[in-house]
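ASSEMBLY PREDICTION REQUEST
Request ID: AP-0331
Submitted by: J.K., bench scientist
Number of chains: two
Total residues: 656
Priority: normal
Notes: Please return the full assembly, not individual chains.
Input sequences:
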Amino acid sequence: MLDHGSGGKKSAALVSEIFLPAFSNAALDTLGDGAVMAGADRLVMSTDSFVIAPRFFPGGDIGKLSVCGTVNDVCMAGGEPKYLSLGLILEEGLEVDELQSIAASIAMAAGEAGVHIVTGDTKVVERGKGDGVYINTAGVGFLRHAGLSPARMREGDAVIVSGAIGDHGTAVMLCRKDLGIQSSLCSDCAPLTGMCKALAAFGSDVRVLRDPTRGGVATALNEFVEGTGLCIELMEDDIPIREEVRAGCDLLGLDPLYCANEGKLIAVVAAERAEAVLSAIQNAPYGENAAIIGRVSARSAGRVLLHTGIAGTRMLTKLTGAALPRIC
Amino acid sequence: MLDHGSGGKKSAALVSEIFLPAFSNAALDTLGDGAVMAGADRLVMSTDSFVIAPRFFPGGDIGKLSVCGTVNDVCMAGGEPKYLSLGLILEEGLEVDELQSIAASIAMAAGEAGVHIVTGDTKVVERGKGDGVYINTAGVGFLRHAGLSPARMREGDAVIVSGAIGDHGTAVMLCRKDLGIQSSLCSDCAPLTGMCKALAAFGSDVRVLRDPTRGGVATALNEFVEGTGLCIELMEDDIPIREEVRAGCDLLGLDPLYCANEGKLIAVVAAERAEAVLSAIQNAPYGENAAIIGRVSARSAGRVLLHTGIAGTRMLTKLTGAALPRIC
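STATUS: Completed
Returned structure:
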């Protein structure tokens, strides 16, 4: 089902029921955004395939996305990304001009992120067996921020988001639906290499990082507390959300907390360093709207709670249902 | 066009006209099967996407192929493969049983090759936007056989092939066409890690390695001599080809020299060590039918010549035309 690719519960079931039993090893089993290969290598590796529709969208295209997505995953695992591989699956009939334009986006994003495309592969499939272009990138880097893990979270830790949420998912859905809406909303697609370099200086006071892509902020936070005795409590009024995202989500029947981001991170940090980390993020590229949005508590083990503006409390579960197919 | 993915002249044009200008860097520009990252890292990286149809074929399936293909590319670049990433693009409707069986093949091949699947990603696309399953793998390893390059070839060097050629391409085409032929022919799909470990002991006496996949032996050898003052002369009678491959190729109008292999390598080696290298290959897994098939000469710069059994000489060019779409 499409839902197996949505980044929610069914995706998690595929991983736990099929892939982990088949491939289990120490690096894979941590289920981070990227793998940290223990031992002297200190390598970090991650991969993503990109099947986004449409492949050109406000704020980016599949090429830029395919660099930022993987670079950010290497960063979230504590790595400094250095090398990318690039695998293209082209559908017969794709225009060479379009491929050229996607290649230019890839080159520009790789330049900004400081990574080299060192190896690649191109396959072509018949018309009707693809959708223009699918891209896979794998990224390799070296560990510079060791030990990032949800297991390091403690009661009282602060939860920081690096900027306004839901931009990517909402912008792509709005442009896909062709609703005839004039919107200035753009995807937030961007490499977080600079921001993560700044975060590395805080060492173990940064507990864990995650970029909330498919499944959004709510799903990422659920993955943090899953299987722990901890709870994450969010203050709805503190979560930065653009007006255009609110309006777009209302129109589309979506919730920004479940919409994909492609240039944001969530950091859980020690309470006493929260303001310092926040300020470091705000001074890093793409971090100007960062905010502390919640705290780690022991109120309800394994749960994410949202305190709403009207003094209510709502439980946020993982994404269920393919709300947003082919969003990345 | 489909031909842009066939591994022949049009594939090479995509690389030289679009990808190299956009992404140029020292590791990429060598255009080997994998990239060697110079400097202290001594990393080797390669990637391939797999779109083979049908996805189950005699001797393997897309899962086994996706491990062997990338592992072998890392080996050809002189690396000892250690880590693989796995990116799946599934078409809505693929049976979970089938995915499970592909995952089992991947795990078995990875085990034999001595690599760990450390990171992965799954996307699902709508019916009619894929073809069951496409797989990308990227492989990372450490350099153990430095300096492999066509630039190291010298007049008099021997050309060795590690076994009978054309098995993979012919087996897949025969089973695809559903010609109702009873054939015992299987793909040669296999990891060449053991063989390459043995070859590393010969150091710079092994000039260059390549696994002749898309485009076959003829295309790979053309890539070796391209832009050099050297020629490769092959003795047709010395090239190991199974009877079933000869018969199948006759029937399909194919030439085994242009058919894909997925468990064979070509090694160009110093003349004085040729017999020793041959014997090492023959004693390694999958090498029992290895043979010396030709020599490097200065007879005709940049050309590959085939001396036929009837004392004629034929020039072998790179593959042109999409003889074998979606063969890997």
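REVIEWER COMMENTS: Chain A has a mean pLDDT of 94.
SIGN-OFF: pending second reviewer
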